[in-house]
Amino acid sequence: MVKNTTKTTRFDREFLEKIKKILLEERAKLENELALMTKKTSDKEDGYATKFPNYGDNEDENAAEVAEYVTNISLEENLQKNLRDTEQALARVDQGTYGICKYCKKTIEEKRLLARPASSACVECKKAIVQEA
């Protein structure tokens, strides 16, 4: 017999509904921001490809296109990471495991979750991870 070691959330339904609403709004915002600088694609794992801007054929326009493209690649990566985190948090809400630290398995403080609803780590574990890097 396999013992289930997955903890379930300690938060009440009202709090979880509030968090889910925040996460859904965040997901929509991130998807809208990604749509401005990317196109959906099925040939990439993350599903997005940065659009290359087209300002014209002059040398200074080409330089501006390259500069914007490079900037947008970095922004796209951050937006995609935030979208992934948001999607994973929504999945945890649906699975009943939202608010459990993925490292120490303790409950994440409500204050932290309200500040960063997509968080998957408690403050102590996050500090330890950041100091290691």
Write the SSE topology.
Elements: H1 13-37, E1 38-40, E2 48-50, H2 59-95, H3 110-115, H4 123-132
Antiparallel strand pairs: 1-2
Helix pairs in contact: 1-2
Task: Quickly describe the structure.
This protein is mainly alpha-helical and 133 residues long.
Account of the protein in words:
This protein has a domain at 13-98. 59% of the residues lie in helices and 5% in strands. It is built from four helices and two strands, in the order αββααα. It has helices at residues 13-37, 59-95, 110-115, 123-132, and strands at residues 38-40, 48-50. A two-stranded antiparallel ribbon has the order 1-2.
Beta fraction: under 5%
Order of helical and strand elements: HEEHHH
Q: What is the CA-based Rg, rounded?
A: 19 Å
The average pLDDT value, as a whole number, equals 85
* N- to C-terminal distance: 39 Å
Sketch the major β-sheet.
2 strands, antiparallel
Number of discrete helical segments: 4
Low-confidence stretches: 1-5
Widest sheet, order of strands: 1-2
Helix content: 55-70%
Structural class: mainly alpha
Per the principal axes of the C-alpha atoms, what is the gross shape?
elongated
**What's the total count of β strands?**
2
Primary descriptors:
133 residues; two-stranded antiparallel sheet; 59% helix; elongated
